[in-house]
Amino acid sequence: MTHDTLDGLAIHTVTTRSWSAGECIKHYAAAGIPAITFWRDVLDGRNPEAIGRQARDAGLGVVSVARGGFFFGSDWEDDNKLAVDQTAALGAPVLVLVCGADPALPLEESRKIITERIGMLLGYAQRRNVLLAIEPLHPMYADTRSAINTIQQAHDVCDALDSPANLGLALDVYHTWWDPALEAGIRKTGATNRLFAFHVCDWKVPTTDLLNDRGLMGEGCIPIRKIRGWVEESGFQGFNEVEIFSHTYWAQDPHAYLEKIKEAYKKHV
Amino acid sequence: MTHDTLDGLAIHTVTTRSWSAGECIKHYAAAGIPAITFWRDVLDGRNPEAIGRQARDAGLGVVSVARGGFFFGSDWEDDNKLAVDQTAALGAPVLVLVCGADPALPLEESRKIITERIGMLLGYAQRRNVLLAIEPLHPMYADTRSAINTIQQAHDVCDALDSPANLGLALDVYHTWWDPALEAGIRKTGATNRLFAFHVCDWKVPTTDLLNDRGLMGEGCIPIRKIRGWVEESGFQGFNEVEIFSHTYWAQDPHAYLEKIKEAYKKHV
C-alpha cells in the first residue's frame, strides 16, 4: 500500500454523524473514499440489504458494522443476533464487538462472562458468514464499556474459545497505542490469522473529553504509521478505518471535514 | 489494621485544595486525621521546615510530598532537587514522582529518559534521606503526564537502576485498578521491599473529566479493599493516602467533606 493515495481508506459513518446512511454513501463516494463502515444508528429502522446494495452500487467497499457486544444488558443475546443479521444483510464481513463490563463485578469476572457470551454467539454468526471482531478498549473505559483493555486480553478470549475461525480482533490505535505489549500482540494476530479490522485516529494533546475529543490523524501523539507497519507486517490486508468521535469535528461542515480526513490519511497513516 | 477506625488514614492537601498548609494541618488534626501528605503548591514560598514542625506539633504524621518528576521540562533537574530539598526539610520520608512523557517521542524512549534522569537524582536524594517513589499513571495520561503506565513499568525502572534502596513505587488505585498484572506487581513490591506509598480514591461511573472527577472511596468501581489487602499482604505498613481531584468536592464545604472522607475510609478502605 502506498501512502500518497486514498488506497485502503475507509470511514465510519459515526465520523460524519450528522449524515444518514444514504448521505454518507453519496458523499463518501463523491469524495473518492474507497470504503465505508456502518454504525448501527444509521441502520436503525432501515433495510440493511438495500443500504449495502446502495453502497456497492456507489463503488464503496462495505467493511464492517460497529457495533455489537455490550454483553451485560438484559437483551444482549437478541441485540447481538440482530447485529449479526444486520451485518449479514448489509453484506459486511465483520461485526465489531465492544464487549461491555459490569462495574459491580471484578474485571476478570466480566471477562469470563464476555467469553461465555461470545461463545454462545459464534455459531449464529458462523452460519451467517459473519466474522466477530473483539475490540480492546482503552483502560479509561474499563468501568462499563469494556473489560477487554489490552490486545492480549482479546487474544485470551479467542484462545479460551479454542480459536474459532470466525473470531478475531479489531484493533484501534486510540485504544491501544500506550500498550507496551502492542507490537507483540499484533505479531500474534499474524500467527493466528486473527486481525479483522484496523481503526485509526489520533490522541490529542491535551485531550479534553473521555469520549468525544479524538483527533484527526497527525494531530496527536499516536505513532500511527509505525503501528500500521506492524499491522501490515502481520499480514493484514484490510482497510484503515477512520473512526473519530469529536464534538469539534462534528460541529464543522462535513464536506470540508472529508477533505481534511483525506489529507490526514495521505500524510499520517 | 482494623477497618472501623481512622488508623492509617492520611489526606493529601490537594484533596482540600482551598486550604493553605496551615489550614490543612489545623483542620485535619481537629478532625482526627492521623497524617498528611503535602502538595508542593502549599509549600511554595513557605518554609517547609516550619510547616513540618507545625504538622508534627499538631500530632499529624508527615507522609510524603507530591510531587517531583516531570523529567522532560528544561528545569527538571533543578526542580527535582528543590522537591527533594523540600521533602527533606519538611521531614517527610518520601517524594512521589510523576514522571512525565514527551508526546513527540515513542513511549519507550520517554521511559529510557525517565530512567536516566531518576538515576541522576538518586544520590542527591539519598544524601538527604529521601525515598523516591515512582507513581505509575493511568494510560489516559500517557501523552504528557507519565510514560510509566503500569506497575510493571515502574518495577522495570527500579530494576534497570539495579534496585537502589531509596527507589520504589507509589501505588494509586485510581491509576492501576484496571491492570491485569496489578496483583503480581504488588507481590513483587513485597519481594523487593519497594512499595513506599499507597493512594486511594474511586473511579466514578461515569467519569466526566479526565483529571478532576475522582470519586470518594465507595462511589465507584475500584475494588479498593481487595487491592489494600494485596498491599498489606506484601508487607506494606504505611498510610492509606486519600488523594482526590474533584471539581465536585472542591466546590463543597471542606469541613463537611472531611467528615465524608472519614466515613468513606471506614466503610470502603
Sketch the topology of chain A as an H/E string, one letter per element: EHEHEHEHEHEHHEHEHH
Evaluate the radius of gyration of chain A: 17 Å
* Quaternary class: homodimer
Strand content of chain A: 15-25%
Q: Report the major sheet of chain A.
A: 8 strands, parallel, barrel
Sheet with the most strands: spatial strand order of chain A: 1-2-3-4-5-6-7-8
- Low-pLDDT segments, ≥5 res of chain A: none
Tell me the span between the first and last alpha carbons of chain A.
11 Å
Structural class of chain A: alpha/beta
Account of the protein in words:
The structure is a homodimer of 269-residue chains. Chain A contains 10 helices and 8 strands. Chain A is an alpha/beta fold and 269 residues long. Chain A has an 8-stranded parallel barrel, surrounded by 8 helices. In chain A, helix 2 packs parallel to helix 3. The interface between A and B is medium-sized, with 29 and 29 residues.
Protein traits:
alpha/beta, 8 strands, 269 residues, homodimer, 8-stranded parallel β-barrel, globular
What's this model, at a glance?
2 copies of one chain form a homodimer. Chain A is 41% helix and 16% strand. Chain A has 10 helices and 8 strands.
Layout: helices, strands, pairs:
Two copies of one chain form a homodimer.
Chain A: E1 9-12, H1 21-30, E2 35-39, H2 48-57, E3 61-69, H3 76-90, E4 94-98, H4 107-127, E5 131-134, H5 151-160, E6 167-172, H6 173-176, H7 182-192, E7 195-200, H8 224-233, E8 240-242, H9 247-250, H10 254-268
Helix pairs in contact in A: 2-3, 3-4, 7-8
